[in-house]
Design goal:
single chain; 282 residues; alpha/beta; Rossmann fold; 8-stranded mixed β-sheet; two-stranded antiparallel ribbon; globular
């Protein structure tokens, strides 16, 4: 375990997986987590990539898992902070520690969305986004839309208002989440265009500064990262050489993947191998 400073100095709990491959590929992979997910979710995938010649960095965003303060009530953090400050700091660390390596990134859910929130993204050569979306509820799957909306936009905000943060650990719903993240995500509920909405509030985006090659992956049974949803982020990378694919369950040895299952070891073949082969071309 190491501590990586965010752009504003906040210490982020991180893990550096060093490669064991004698043919070092001179690439460092940064894995951007989904919202409220401990970096441990990506442990086995990170080991797999390290064993295949990559330096790999996983980290917890401020306010999440091992990067949260002892007291989360009153702690200020938003998902734009995760992009502007946290991801920026990790990119700076990667450049400093591995100056002769190319930087590539895997963004899971919000981890793909925040790539456009830092001007440092111009340092990235290749991106794979998995289920990256903007939390616009009309994009979600028809059979899960009502349930997800009830949780995200009624239950989560009400509990957060009561506690001053969302106590996900106590409720066995992933990790605790800072109030600012819940508020920011809740404000996305009725706005089709995230970029337009947030720019009106003074936010500046850098999707058009990013010229990295991009592969956007969707999962057939992901109720949140539907094809319509992931296209919203995919289309923001206007200057990238990009492609989008939907992973069909018929092509993998499992009947369920959803929003989080990609990082299960049962998906090593063919999905992890697919990402490795793609990153190797960068």
């Amino acid at each position: 375990m190491i501590q990586i400073p965010a752009a504003d100095g906040y210490k982020l709990s991180s893990v550096l997986y060093t490669d064991n491959d004698p043919k070092n590929k001179k690439k460092v992979l940064i894995i951007n987590s989904a919202t409220a997910v401990d970096k441990k979710l990506y442990h086995h995938y990170a080991i797999f990539m390290a064993q295949n010649g990559y330096q790999v960095i996983t980290y917890d965003y401020r306010g999440i898992a091992s990067s949260r303060p002892k007291k989360l009530r009153g702690f200020e953090a938003s998902f734009t902070d995760w992009g502007q400050k946290d991801f920026s700091g990790v990119i700076d660390f990667a450049k400093k520690e591995f100056p002769d390596h190319k930087i590539v990134t895997l963004g899971h859910s919000i981890g793909g969305t925040i790539i456009g929130m830092t001007e440092r993204n111009k340092e990235i050569c290749g991106i794979i986004n998995i289920g990256a979306q903007t939390a616009y509820y009309k994009d979600w799957s028809k059979d899960q839309k009502t349930k997800i909306y009830f949780l995200w936009h009624i239950v989560f905000p009400l509990i957060t208002k009561l506690y001053g943060y969302f106590p996900g650990k106590s409720l066995r719903m992933l990790e605790d989440i800072p109030k600012g993240v819940i508020d920011q995500w809740h404000n996305r509920r009725n706005q089709t265009n995230m970029k337009t909405q947030m720019e009106a509030n003074g936010m500046h985006f850098f999707y058009n500064d990013c010229k990295a090659k991009l592969l956007t992956l969707g999962i057939e049974d992901d109720p949140i990262g539907t094809e319509k949803a992931i296209n919203r982020i995919h289309n923001l990378f206007e200057k990238s050489d990009k492609s989008l694919e939907i992973i069909r369950l018929s092509s993998v040895p499992t009947t369920k993947i959803g929003h989080f299952g990609f990082f299960s070891r049962k998906c090593k073949n063919p999905l992890w191998v697919k990402t490795l082969d793609w990153f190797d071309t960068i």
